[in-house]
Design brief:
This protein is an alpha/beta fold. The chain has twelve helices and ten strands. Strand 2 and strand 3 form a beta hairpin.
């Protein structure tokens, strides 16, 4: 497979593209891939590229060296009160809140809203905001030794990066409250039981299984995925039944007019695999 390495502007985040898949790796293993300012900026930049690039059909987000993401850099916060950012320390409260909102929208928000499938591949811990990022993805595949924890209550935070929304949609309000209030670890099998994980695999097979899933999605129908995701998101956000059905009707008729649908219908009749071009 040919890999095209992408310039992220920082060592805190790696990215490469191949076979229609954009691979993004959170890369601060010395801190269990805890967030940094450069990481967050690069992450937003790479997600924007993935959403806008016609060559990218699916995005995979993972972490380096046995962890997914530990969330915010708590050690940095303890030392400086702001995660180690001088600019953040000098900003007003309103400026800090606005900057946080922009960053959340550029990362977790974009993962959730972009019209392409996003896979979170968890080799290890996804904690705090790292949990939120994992939950923002469409699908999650976990190594059998990985775990998820909100962790927020243990450090006196209320939570960020959309975790309360994503978790409530996936497991319901009661379970989400328990996960936030108690901040217990949820191992991979418990995540599978709750529907937080779509698959659990041996740690040594995670990369291979993630790539197989990503390739399968990359070979699928981009236009149909775009509208499936919008339909599902609208339903998750509480739209009423008739609104959901009306939106489905619009999207279904629209995709029925694509070249991809016509070619796939012919392939079905001819008993061969379809090839989707996104047109």
């Amino acid at each position: 497979m040919t890999k095209t390495m992408l310039d992220t502007g920082t060592e805190d985040l790696k990215a490469w593209e191949g076979e229609g898949i954009l691979h993004i790796t959170l890369n601060r293993p010395q801190a269990r891939n805890a967030m940094s300012g450069p990481m967050n900026q690069a992450f937003g930049k790479m997600l924007a590229y993935g959403e806008e690039s016609a060559s990218v059909r699916v995005i995979v987000v993972t972490g380096a060296e046995g962890a997914f993401c530990a969330g915010g850099d708590v050690k940095g916060m303890a030392g400086s009160g702001d995660g180690g950012s001088t600019a953040a320390a000098e900003a007003t409260l309103d400026e800090r809140i606005h900057a946080q909102r922009l960053n959340q929208r550029a990362t977790a928000g974009r993962m959730y809203l972009m019209p392409k499938p996003v896979i979170a591949s968890l080799p290890g811990a996804a904690a705090g905001a790292g949990m939120s990022l994992a939950l923002a993805a469409d699908l999650r595949i976990m190594a059998e030794n990985a775990f998820i924890t909100s962790a927020f209550a243990k450090v006196g935070f209320s939570g960020d990066y959309g975790g309360t929304f994503f978790l409530t949609q996936l497991v319901g309000s009661g379970e989400a409250r328990e996960i936030y209030y108690l901040s217990d670890r949820l191992d991979a099998q418990e995540c599978l039981r709750l529907g937080l994980a779509n698959a659990v695999v041996p740690a040594e097979a995670l990369e291979e299984e993630t790539l197989a899933l990503a390739r399968r999605l990359a070979a699928g129908p981009p236009a149909a995925y775009r509208y499936m995701k919008e339909n599902l998101n609208r339903a998750a956000e509480g739209a009423d039944a008739l609104s959901c059905m009306d939106l489905e009707a619009t999207h279904h008729v629209h995709t029925g007019l694509t070249e991809d649908h016509r070619n796939a219908a012919a392939a079905f009749v001819e008993k061969r695999l379809p090839v989707f071009t996104g047109r």
